[in-house]
Specification:
Layout: H1 11-18, E1 24-25, H2 56-66, E2 73-77, H3 78-90, E3 96-101, H4 105-113, E4 117-122, H5 133-139, E5 144-150, H6 162-175, E6 178-182, E7 204-209, H7 211-214, E8 221-225, H8 228-238, H9 247-258, H10 260-283, E9 288-289, E10 298-299, E11 302-303, H11 310-320, E12 322-323, E13 325-326, E14 336-339, H12 344-362
Helix pairs in contact: 2-9, 3-4, 3-8, 10-12, 11-12
The structure holds pyridoxal-5'-phosphate.
Length: 363
């Protein structure tokens, strides 16, 4: 078991905050941030202080949108804190948690920090990064308390279908474990989004936020869906962490949710256009191979040469003012992650530069 003292933060998050910004930034995975003006907020919409366990109008709106009773909703500071709070409530230090690999590092690091005995199940490039229930079956044990999935998968963007989630739920039930599904990218299916996997059973717990699909990261409008007794435990545990929510943020989340269909419409148009651009780029590159998901904001190509992407990423950054995420942050150094959620002209220029950098490292 990893000592919790070994975890001093998230190497990926530190890199994202200090190294990822560039003129042609293809390292982001969320829609371009909206400004407060885009939300058409009036001062009368805001207030500073509330209290209690969840701002009722926000809880009602989330409940109606996702078909979830408010007794099963916990609001949090982004998916990041939703993950932390959910993980903290779902196992005790030393208990076994089965995590996908490759994984979103901050979530994995949080589980380690909380003292999980981490086991892994692999999502293989050769299998299109799909979750294979038999792979989970092989790794699960009577000691497993939790199985973790991101849907869509970060870094590959691959969707896990309801049937597979049901199979995972059955495996979890057999050993008395729960399933934690991080659905922050599922929102990028927009009108095609399946019902939240929370509806698959009481042993499913879901985290998400308005960050990725809507450009609303700054609101920190996160949430957990969990069966009522568990949700109550999470609220009580949160009394040790943030105690109360930032109420102006809760109010702004209500304002944003009132406009969410309009915001979603613009986001979908942009992502459809940008996905086509990336697909055209990938069609033309013999030196890359890539699982090409139909949805989401990222793809995770790998170098056919088998080399790590480190040299590519540094040439790109230093010479071409362009950033992608090195695959080493996702335990797959021969890959890199490309985001398509930025402005189209930035993506176009960034891809052109990526092409030049790829030619350069081959020469
Ligand atoms: C899988 C996953 N979970 C959570 C987050 C963070 O989301 P939020 O901004 O809602 O905290 C990210 C952001 O990259 C992510 O990829």
């Amino acid at each position: 078991m990893t000592s919790t003292r070994a975890i001093s933060g998230s190497s990926y998050m530190h890199w994202a905050k200090t190294q990822s910004v560039s003129r042609f930034n293809l390292a982001t995975s969320g829609l371009e941030n909206l400004s407060i003006h885009d939300l058409r907020v009036s001062l009368d919409d805001l207030e500073l202080t509330y209290g209690g366990y969840g701002y009722e109008p926000l809880m009602q709106m989330l409940g109606a949108r996702y078909g979830v009773d408010t007794s099963s909703i916990v609001t949090t500071a982004g998916t990041s804190f939703a993950n932390h709070l959910a993980l903290a409530a779902l196992f005790q230090p030393g208990e076994e948690v089965l995590f996908e690999e490759p994984a979103y590092e901050p979530m994995l690091a949080t589980a380690r920090y909380l003292g999980a005995d981490i086991k892994r199940y692999e999502r293989r490039f050769e299998e299109g990064f799909r979750v294979l229930a038999q792979e989970i079956s092989k790794q699960v044990s009577d000691r497993t308390r939790l199985i973790v999935v991101t849907n869509l998968h970060n870094p590959s963007g691959v969707l896990t279908h309801q049937e597979t989630l049901k199979d995972i739920g059955e495996i979890a039930e057999r050993v008395g474990a729960r399933v934690l599904v991080n659905e922050v990218y599922l929102e990028t299916l927009f009108a095609e989004m399946p019902p939240t996997s929370f509806h698959l059973g009481d042993h499913f717990v879901v985290t998400s936020s308005l960050t990725k699909a809507f450009g609303l990261s700054g609101l920190r409008s996160g949430r957990i869906f969990a069966e009522p007794e568990l949700a109550r435990r999470m609220w009580l545990l949160n009394d040790l962490f943030s105690a109360t929510q930032v109420h102006s943020g809760e109010r702004l989340s209500v304002v944003a949710l009132r406009q969410i269909d309009e915001i979603a419409g613009r986001a979908k148009t942009l992502l459809d256009r940008n996905r086509e651009l990336l697909n055209t780029f990938l069609d033309a590159r013999q030196d890359l191979e890539c699982v090409r998901p139909q949805f989401g904001t990222v793809m995770f190509p790998r170098l056919r040469s088998g080399e790590t992407s480190d040299r590519l990423c540094s040439v790109l950054r230093e010479k071409y003012e362009t950033t992608v995420v090195p695959g080493s942050f996702f335990e797959r150094p021969e890959h890199f992650r490309v985001g398509i959620a930025g402005e189209t002209d930035v993506l176009e220029a960034g891809l052109e530069r990526l092409g030049r950098a790829l030619d350069e490292i081959k020469a």
